[in-house]
Amino acid sequence: MKEEDLRELLTIRSENEHVEFKEAKSNFHFDKLVDYCVALGNEGGGYIILGVTDKTPRKIVGTQTFTEPERTVAGIYERLRIKVRSFEFMLPEGRVLVFQAPSRPRGGWFDHDGRILMRAGESLVTMSPDRLKEIVAEGGPSLLERPASEVLTDAEVVAELDVQSFFDLRKIPMPATRNEILKALENRHLIKPEGTGYLITNMGALLFAKDIEHFPSVAHKAVRVIVYEGVTKSKVKDGKDIRGKLGYAAGFERMIAYIQGELPGEEDYQGGVRNVKYAYPIRAIRELVGNALVHQDLNEQGSSVKVEVYADRIEISNPGLPLLDVERFIDEDRSRNLQLAAEMRRFNLYEGRGQGMDEVVTLIELHQLPPYSVRLGTQQTTVVLSRYRPLKDLTQEEKVAAVYQHCVLRYVTNRITNNESVRDRFQIDTKNSALATRLLSEAVKAGRIRLVDASVGYRSWRYVPYWGQ
């Protein structure tokens, strides 16, 4: 770890399962340090940083504890038999000490005196039985690699999977022989040989099932689309509460077309040709649905990806909480389903690497929509896309969020955020530049963006996200 890496960690909005800050000005109990190394390791690895306040704006206060970090690392190894790394920084503001805990092994965990610890908010707690079961299951094949069917004949495999879609999405001709078709499916881990036949994997069923109900292990993961009358859940429009039948890849385009047909829009006739201007850019919905499919927690048994269309908004939900801070959706990407993400990318149904949300924000700005929002439940993530409302009708929170998302988009595409760019974002007339200045100031005050250099003339002021360099 270098000083610039430490400085970047100090800018994160809040602690998470991978980063813990402690002031520890004069001391910090060794057993507590060991506990945190266990918990961080069980969450995939991370840092405990001593000598820094845990509340934003975060400040370096210096620490005098563990004056011989090498001995501390040796002591942790003696307790846990894991290799923790230490980094010591002598900074102008004070000494900062960082311990980096490695990730637990696949299918295993770390414990301290028999206690298997994990993070829960700002506390350390004993890992739940359900979570332990999930970890134990990692030791075998992943959920996507497990069989979704009994042993099937060649003909039965082709009857259950939409093989035509598989080759159409890859933009290659379907082979002339069944053996070649099956080999192609096997190469992508959609099926695997078993005795004299084949097993369809959960991956194969999720992506290319002709009828997902034929596969009980993943049937509950069918996408659900609900269209409501008005802005509440009180009435479903014309009974339009449906579950997808096809696998994600085989049915993706049809699902998006169905959603598009249910979106509010305005008809316009030009030269006798009917055109519909929809309330939302369909490409943005496509990206959000693809993200929801890839980022869902497949181990959640009681829910699936859900698209809900209201008169004033569209909500796209997936089971599970995000692995990233919601503030970093635009510039980063981290999927819990790497195999699924790779296949969805292969079929051009998912962008990844943060590019999908780049596209969403670009389209939001192009169509002058309010910023997207993210709502976290106990075990569900919901992204909300709202219909157009003029700037004057946006809430203060929405205005700040819109400026932040604009600033992140500009930052990751190497463009400057300033008064002019904000005027473009909200279509503010040049003579009303004071309004753009006020929007930027409010976002700075809220801690979402920061001014790079206040010493230059205000006409040259530029801004970056609060975590930007």
How are the SSEs placed, and which strands pair?
Blueprint: H1 3-10, E1 19-22, H2 30-42, E2 46-50, H3 69-80, E3 85-91, E4 94-101, E5 117-120, E6 123-126, H4 129-137, H5 154-160, H6 163-170, H7 178-187, E7 191-194, E8 197-200, H8 202-208, E9 224-228, E10 236-243, H9 248-261, E11 265-270, E12 273-278, H10 282-295, E13 306-309, E14 313-319, H11 338-346, H12 355-366, E15 373-376, E16 380-386, H13 396-412, H14 419-426, H15 433-445, E17 449-451, E18 463-465
Parallel strand pairs: 1-2, 9-13
Antiparallel strand pairs: 2-4, 3-4, 5-6, 7-8, 9-10, 11-12, 13-14, 14-16, 15-16, 17-18
Q: What do you see in this structure?
A:
- It contains 15 helices and 18 strands.
- It has 4 domains: 3-137, Schlafen, AAA domain (Methyltransferase, Cobalt-precorrin-4 Transmethylase, Domain 2), CATH 3.30.950; 143-215, no CATH class; 224-386, Heat Shock Protein 90 (2-Layer Sandwich), CATH 3.30.565.60; 394-465, Orthogonal Bundle (Arc Repressor Mutant, subunit A), CATH 1.10.10.
- It is an alpha+beta fold.
- Strands 10-9-13-14-16-15 form a 6-stranded mixed β-sheet, with helices on one face.
- Strand 13 and strand 14 form a beta hairpin.
- It starts with a helix and ends with a strand.
Kindly provide the name of the CATH class of the largest domain.
Answer: Alpha Beta
Strand fraction equals 15-25%
CATH topology grouping of the largest domain = Heat Shock Protein 90
Biggest sheet: strand arrangement: 10-9-13-14-16-15
How many individual helices?
15
* Alpha carbon gyration radius: 26 Å
Unreliable runs: none
Question: Main sheet?
Answer: 6 strands, mixed
* Shape by Cα distribution: flat
Oligomer: single chain
Instruction: Provide the domain count.
Output: 4
The overall strand count is: 18
Mean pLDDT: 90
CATH architecture of the largest domain: 2-Layer Sandwich
- Span from first to last CA? 17 Å
Structural class based on helices, strands and sheet pairing: alpha+beta
